[in-house]
Amino acid sequence: MEEQTPQASQRKSLPVWVQALALVVLLAFLTLIGFSLKRTQQGPITIGQTVPAFTLTTFDGDVYNTADMQGKVVVINFWASWCFPCKQEAADLESAWRQLSPDGDVVFLGVDYVDTEPEARAYLSEFDITYPNGPDLATKISQMFRIRGVPETYIISPDGKLVDVKIGPYSSLTEILDAIDKAKTGSVN
Prior knowledge:
The protein is α/β, with parallel strands linked by helices. It has two domains: 6-41; 55-185, Glutaredoxin (3-Layer(aba) Sandwich), CATH 3.40.30. The chain has helices spanning 6-10, 16-41, 84-100, 117-126, 140-145, 173-185, and strands at residues 55-57, 63-65, 73-79, 106-112, 133-135, 152-156, 162-167. It has a five-stranded mixed β-sheet with strand order 5-4-3-6-7, covered by helices on one side. The protein has a two-stranded antiparallel sheet with strand order 1-2. The longest helix is centred in the N-terminal third of the chain and has 26 residues, at 16-41. The N and C termini lie far apart (82 Å).
């Protein structure tokens, strides 16, 4: 018969409650990873879906909540000062805003993606952009839309459903106005 040494007898297994706690922590961690992977695999909000409400605080401190915009067409443009294609469409977006804003049935929101405030403000000044713009703090809004890059523009109908998505820059003012007109009539692109 083999005799146990003092070191071998001290190597006992952990108490059951410690093992159970470790298992619970491990399961919670795996569940969290599973939910994150599922969300990542969902893809972007799709046309026809109701867009969840969100709040955008502008660079000037004004707060816009999309829940308060029911009954209006909402144009959400994701952009960044470092994005060359964003600069290609900036003047046309501003022209569309100036043309449509007096009617009050269309709202534009610019969402500045992964940028610094000084550069973003310079961009807005360079293109004389007057519609509301604010930073996407902690990328919460872009994560909700699951954007792939910038520029991306999402148009929401008066009933809160996504009716048009433009990946990349608009090619003209006419293209922007046509997309907004379709949203007003409820046409889905």
